[in-house]
Design a protein that fits this description.
43% of the residues lie in helices and 12% in strands. The protein has twelve helices and eight strands. The strands form two sheets. The chain has a four-stranded parallel sheet, with helices on both faces. A four-stranded parallel sheet has the order 6-5-7-8, sandwiched between helices. The longest helix is centred in the N-terminal third of the chain and has 18 residues. The mean pLDDT is 95.
């Protein structure tokens, strides 16, 4: 099949103090989040000047993807759309239609399955196409890439660089702690088609941690979670990264390297939850702390995106390092399977 364009689809983030509250209202619309909770989260954004780095980091990825597409002789313009802040995906898809795009590939900025990590992007695609109407292009979402060799290699090198920041006398005993965004346990249980037994999200995160650790030659590591936002009576994936660090014995673990493998790019949940709260918890325990970079900043990430594109435009083979299913490749917002990753109190 022929394609006319690539659309990078992401979460979005505010780019100034005046954007913060409207952005948060977009994120939480229909979820009954009390205003005082929005006020608390808004202060986290305002601590950083009201600017999330996410939009600019996505623009940087797009620039590198354009260069890589050109290098490989693929004449495909790259568009940018968000779920929660400008450029909104509905507006972007309308512009694509006006530009004459009839069929496009969609790269969603999440490596994993699950409602928040995958299915919600399908809903974004369906909503945007409905808003545009019959002029809307066909949109084919690219597959999940949690076990792609380039994703694994980028994360492994990020951990190596972070380990180099740990003082030499603590480095050999430093613990690698992988993090991903927590979700309600019920949402994780419903992640993936029923025939697969659920838990696609947590199983894929654990597999990425295993693959990165194998690349590093690390045999002992931890997989923890961060950024839960739901009511305390609702069970979420645990342990939380801060709770985990607070429970470490400095005599046994003199330093930690926190690696946010659940994320493609830095954004507020990393800047606040890891660089502020997790670091503070480590310092209070006398534990050395370094945070690994996210994979999206690595030059190989653009190559990864183009490899996924080539699976469709050039019949290139899938490159995977595990036997776990890589779902997520769907047309016009359709789910991977009946009942796959339905919304069950999911986060974000």
């Amino acid at each position: 099949m022929s394609y006319d364009a690539v659309l990078l689809l992401s979460f979005g983030g505010p780019e100034g103090p005046e954007d913060v509250r409207p952005f948060l209202e977009n994120v939480t619309r229909g979820r009954g989040v009390p205003p005082e909770r929005l006020d608390d989260v808004a202060q986290h954004y305002l601590h950083f000047g009201g600017v999330s780095p996410l939009n600019q980091l996505n623009r940087d990825i797009i620039d590198r993807v354009r260069i890589e597409l050109d290098r490989q002789g693929l004449d495909l313009p790259v568009y940018f759309g968000n779920r929660n802040w400008e450029p909104m995906v509905e507006d972007t898809v309308a512009r694509m239609a006006a530009d004459g795009v009839r069929r496009a590939l969609v790269f969603a900025t999440s490596a994993y399955g699950g409602y928040s990590a995958c299915r919600q992007y399908d809903e974004d695609i369906e909503r945007a196409r409905n808003a545009v109407g019959e002029r809307a292009p066909e949109l084919v979402k690219l597959r999940q890439f949690f076990d792609h060799p380039l994703f694994v290699a980028a994360n492994a090198d990020a951990v190596r660089s972070a380990l180099a920041e740990i003082p030499a006398e603590r480095r050999d005993a430093a613990r690698v702690v992988y993090t991903a965004h927590s979700v309600p346990t019920a949402a994780d249980a419903a992640a993936g088609p029923a025939s697969e037994g659920g838990h696609r999200y947590s199983r894929q995160v654990a597999e990425t941690a295993r693959l990165v650790s194998a690349e590093l030659g690390v045999t002992e590591y931890d997989v923890v979670w961060q950024s839960r936002s739901g009511p305390p009576q609702v069970p979420w994936l645990e342990p939380d990264v801060v709770d985990h660090i607070e429970g470490l014995d400095p005599a046994e673990v003199p330093a930690v390297v926190v690696a946010p493998i659940g994320f493609v790019s830095d954004h507020l949940e990393i800047l606040w939850d890891l660089d502020e709260e997790a670091r503070e918890a480590a310092e209070e325990r006398g534990i050395g702390f370094a945070r690994a970079a996210t994979a999206g900043a690595d030059r190989r990430f653009a190559e990864l995106v183009v490899e996924l594109v080539r699976e469709h435009v050039a019949d290139a083979p899938e490159r995977k390092l595990s036997e776990l299913v890589s779902g997520g490749c769907t047309v016009n917002g359709a789910p991977c399977a009946v009942g796959c990753c339905e919304r069950l109190g999911a986060a974000r």
